[in-house]
Amino acid sequence: MANYLIPLSNDDKEPETFEFPEKTRHQVPNFMTKFRCIGSDCLDTCCNGWNIFLDKKTHYAYKNSDDPEVSAVAKHSIKTLKSNRDAAAFSKMKLKKNGNCPLMTDCGLCKVHKNLGEEFLSKTCNTFPRRTIKAGDITYLTAMMACPEATRLCLEDEHAVQISDNPEDVLSHATNSKSLNVRKAPKFSDRSKQIQFMMLEIFGDHSLTLGEQFTAAHITLEKFKTHETPLELPQLTALSKSIKESCTQLRDALDPAQAAFFQFKTFNLVFFTEHTKWRENFKALIEKAKAGIHYQTNDGALAVGTYLAAKRDIFLPYDNDNRYLLSNFIKNELLGTLEIFIPGNPNAGDQLNEIAARVSAIRFLLICLSAHDYDGFGKQAYIDCISMVCRSIQHNPNVVAGISNYFSQKDSDLRVVNALLMS
Ligand code: SF4
After folding, report:
1. What is the number of other CB atoms lying within 10 angstroms of the CB of residue 9?
2. Which residue puts its alpha carbon closest to atom 3 of ligand 1?
């Protein structure tokens, strides 16, 4: 195990060494070493409602399969793509009217998995929700939170996203697949690793509000644009401390009532109006959120008042005791967007804003839900909200783009980030 230390929270001791591994490494958050698809036990299966693309090899394997069930589905339900076809996305599964994959049995099992074995699954099916990124000689494995089981494990405890510098056997246990899709990211320099260190340290510091954490992360990106040489550990920790202190100075200048109004105005448009066609189970969650804050289209003031009270009396007391839940989610998203850590990446700010957009949307719904089910409000609400928002947004990328545009308005980043995410 290399000396690659990342403090997880305020409670963790400061690292005494700051050395990065020289050789090829696989870095996997702890929860990914436990991930297994739970198949028919999954309450929001990825065999429903997704675009399921088949790679060329799988396409012909299904078409020519000796298994009568698989070949019958292949004959009627696999459509070769007419445009943008390549070996990775060669054809597409035509879903049933209810959105189910035609290969799914009534009890939720996959016919290919059941009759032929896991190794015959297409790359898409065999890979989801794993997200593998190769940055130079370091390979990262994280998960897309659109899978409720991956989300459950990611939120399991405070150490679930701690990165281990894993030996090969742990990686193969974690991936359990030979056909992972691997995305390439630019090689990590020591400065990239230091930005990563700073970011994970900032998002592990629960004395900051979420808004302050994102503000500090933006300032860190700016600072590292101008640092030419890697800093020593004492300089890094001093820099982190001063950035965090500067961010907390905004705290007293912000008004929670105004912030609640701004959050409500933003997400009322996103979730409560009829512009977007959501999936059925997400619609049900939105209805619960609306009921929680007594939402009525003609009385916004009542809803904002209930939202503010729910935030103060139910959501924040729980969230303050369980800051690791959203913190784990953010860290997983950061590790899945490694390009943020590349110094001078002109898109890093926008990529950070996209994560902030997802977090603020999730947090808004959680606050509404806390008012709906105030006795039972807890971790399960976070798991449901995170996985459903991530999955729904995957189908409606314009939604997250719209929210993150707020964050990206020049000169207003800090104000908007804080208004959407402040405590
Ligand atoms: S969403 Fe996750 S747990 Fe559910 S069926 Fe898909 S991979 Fe398995």
Report:
1. 16
2. 37
Q: What DSSP element (H or E) covers 29?
A: strand 25-29
Residue 79, classed as helix, strand or coil, is strand
Q: Which amino acid is at 281?
A: N
pLDDT along the chain (423 residues), means of 10: 34 41 69 87 87 89 94 92 85 90 88 88 86 84 93 96 68 53 80 88 91 90 75 84 86 79 84 81 93 82 88 94 96 92 88 90 95 89 95 78 69 60 65
Axis crossing angle, helix 210-226 with helix 233-248, rounded to the nearest 10 = 130
- Of ligand 1's atoms, which has the minimum distance to the CA of residue 128? 7
From atom 8 of ligand 1, which residue's Cα is the shortest distance away?
37
- CB distance 128 to ligand 1 below 6 Å: yes
Q: What is the pTM of this model?
A: 0.86
Specify which residues 53 forms β-bridges with.
Answer: 92
Residue nearest to atom 4 of ligand 1 (CA): 45
Residue owning the nearest CA to atom 6 of ligand 1: 46
Q: Taking Cα atoms as reference points, which of 185, 194, 184 lies closest to residue 5?
A: 194
Specify the pLDDT at position 414: 57
Q: 46 CB less than 6 Å from ligand 1? A: yes
**Residue in the block written with tokens 């105004």:** 258
- Residue 267 has what pLDDT? 87
Question: CA-CA distance, 52 to 387, in Å (whole number)?
Answer: 19
> Smallest Cα–Cα separation from 177: which of 222, 212, 143, 218?
143
335 vs 338: CA distance, rounded Å = 5
What does pLDDT average to over the chain? Answer: 83
Question: What crossing angle do the helices spanning 348-372 and 280-292 adopt, rounded to 10°?
Answer: 60
CA angle, residues 272, 349, 332, in degrees to nearest 5:
70
Place of tokens 């597409």: 92
Q: Are β-strands 163-166 and 25-29 bridged in parallel, bridged antiparallel, or unpaired? A: antiparallel
**Ligand 1 geometric centre to CA of 347 (Å):** 31
What span, in angstroms and rounded, lies between the C-alpha atoms of 384 and 282?
9
* 45 pocket-lining for ligand 1 (C-beta < 6 Å): yes
Residue 148 is encoded by which pair of tokens?
Answer: 């409720």
Rounded distance, CA 153 to CA 31, Å? 5
d(CA 42, CA 347): 35
Q: How far, in Å, CA of 190 to CA of 316, rounded? A: 37
Residues in contact with 10: Cβ distance below 8 Å, sequence separation at least 6, in sequence order: 204, 205, 206, 207
